[in-house]
Structure formats: structure tokens, C-alpha cells
């Protein structure tokens, strides 16, 4: 079966300009040669540290920023080759949800106006039935029809994100890019939005590209995970495989670094050592080598290509050796991680039980 979304060698290098003449003095290599597939109804998580290129990938998929190179193909149509009018039509099938719905919702538009706009633009409602369609959308996303008259500032964070989800859902997309959709919310509200996204996926067969730095949410949500380091995919695997047998030392470090500690709570977290190098001048060879506990001479000069190792795609010269050593993932989950997974599970069960 061919994939719904095919991404091939996606690259985005931002020029850095200096001086009065705005001469280009370098390039921020935000995303380089990223390739992956997403099937209908599937969730692919894109994870990595802040600044590794996750949001740039998300925006380039929808051509909210123009890729430097590479192709994005949705359902057989090459999005990266479309002229503007056709691109606008195509966006009906690809939507995005941002971390901060405040930033993506127009504060001067009521929810009714916000949701009516895409419905009318894409011919999915008429002036005669648009109120009804807006009310249905709100109910589908766990809001009430009377919320239509409200403005973004009148909602709580969780409700506002539900409006963001409703706006993305309005055009009945095949794919939604979720860019850190729950990172700004309280943990209990996070679980509600995660469950809403899962329910919508089950009802409408939507595929998600789920961008997140939160491995607990990713583990709960994703079918497959792509791990990105300095703009390149360094490992991609089914979720269970990735957490049970991380094969890239960076993936191991990310898993060891999660969960993030709450103030006042003990944590067994081991932060990824060192800092993310500048994307202006990534290290030669394997870009992770300056931070890698397993790096050898070869890693400093020879960039490892992605290759298949035991059901995983991994870019490490020593992937087999990494998986053989005891992994951080094999330790029992910490109290905080267990508590978060319990909350996610409890929220899901309460939605399934109509009497709860
Ligand atoms: N418009 C831009 N111009 C120049 N550099 C940019 C631009 N947007 C992003 N970058 C750079 O590209 C790199 C990747 O940024 P990006 O926001 O995609 O990372 P991220 O993984 O999503 O991080 P975060 O989780 O903090 O949002 C960073 O080095 C960032 O500074």
C-alpha cells in the first residue's frame, strides 16, 4: 500500500544575512535530507531537542515555509511542485495545529467566524447551513454550540486548543501536523487533548505528524517515531521497538533524559550531555559525535547513512553495539512517568464510560 504522505530529502537551510548589503554569510542548516512516509490513519511522531528542526519540518510539509530542496507528496500530488492556487486547495487536505492556539487564532474573530471561514472557502458549507456546521464541529471537539459566539481570550487553554483542533478539522483533512499541541497545557488537560486527537483519528482516519519533545506523550500516541538530531533523522522505528531497543546513542540519551523533573519531585533523569551544536556549522562526520559516549575516530570523519538494523532505520556506525548494551529504556518507569501514563489512561477510560 502506498503511503498517504511521502517526504523525500526534505531540506531547509535558512540564509544568514549581514551588513548593509544583507550579504549571505552562511546558512542555518535547520533540516537536511529528511525522508519518511506516513500512512492513512497513522501517527508518526517527530522527536528531538529544542532547535533540532522539528517545527521547520512541520512548516515545510505544508509549504508554510518554502523548502530549499526535496519533495512532499500527499496522496500522489507533489505539494512542493504546486502553483499557489492549487496549493491553497491542497491545504484543505493538510492542516496544522500549533502549540499556542492564541498565536494561530485571530483574537478579533469569534469562534463562529474562525470556523465558518474554512468551511465557506472550501465549499463545505453554505450561508444557509454554516451555523449548523460550526455547531457540529464544536460538539465533535468537545465544546458547546454556544461557544461559537465567544472570542479566543474567553476560553481556558484547553478549550482554546479544542478550537484550534476544530479549525484544523473543519476542512476534513487527511493529514494534520500537530506541532507540540499539548506542551503548553497542564498535564490533566494534555490528556484530554491527546484523547480528543486519538478519538478524531479513530472516527475520521486522519494521519498525524506529531511533533513533540515529550516522550511520555509520544509513547502513548504514536505508531512510529522519527528521531531528529541537528536537522537529520537519526533513527526511525515503530514506537514499541524504539522504546524497547533504542539503537542510536542520541535516542538512548533522549530516553534517559525523560521524564522532565517537576520542581520538588525526585527524578532519575539524566540530561543529554553537552549542548546542541550550532546548526550554522554542524560537526563533521556524525553530528552527534561530540556528545556521544561511544564515539570513535570514524565517527568524527564519516557521516553514517541511515540503514536498516532489526526493524529500525538508524544512522550510527555502531547501532548493533548500542542495542546490545543495557538501555535506559529497560529501567522501570519513574514515579512521575508512571503518574503521567496513569492520568492519560484514566482520562481515556472516563471518555469511554458514558456514566463516568
Ligand atoms: N526563520 C528562521 N531563520 C533562521 N533560522 C531559523 C528560522 N527558523 C528556525 N531557524 C533555526 O533552525 C533550527 C531549527 O529550528 P526549529 O524551530 O525547527 O527547531 P525545533 O526542534 O522545532 O525547536 P523548538 O522545539 O524549540 O521549536 C534552529 O537552529 C533555529 O534557530
From TrEMBL:
Keywords in alphabetical order: ATP-binding, Nucleotide-binding, Transport
Region (Disordered): 259-280
Gene Ontology CC entries for this record: plasma membrane
Membrane topology label: Peripheral membrane protein
The ABC transporter domain, residue ranges: 5-255
Subcellular location(s) of the protein: Cell inner membrane
GO biological process per UniProt: peptide transport; transmembrane transport
Biased composition (Basic and acidic residues): 263-272
MF annotations from Gene Ontology: ATP binding; ATP hydrolysis activity
Highest taxon in the source lineage: Bacteria
Similarity-based family: Belongs to the ABC transporter superfamily.
PANTHER family: D,D-DIPEPTIDE TRANSPORT ATP-BINDING PROTEIN DDPF-RELATED (PTHR43776:SF7), TRANSPORT ATP-BINDING PROTEIN (PTHR43776)
Protein name per UniProt: Peptide ABC transporter substrate-binding protein
Organism field: Roseivivax isoporae LMG 25204
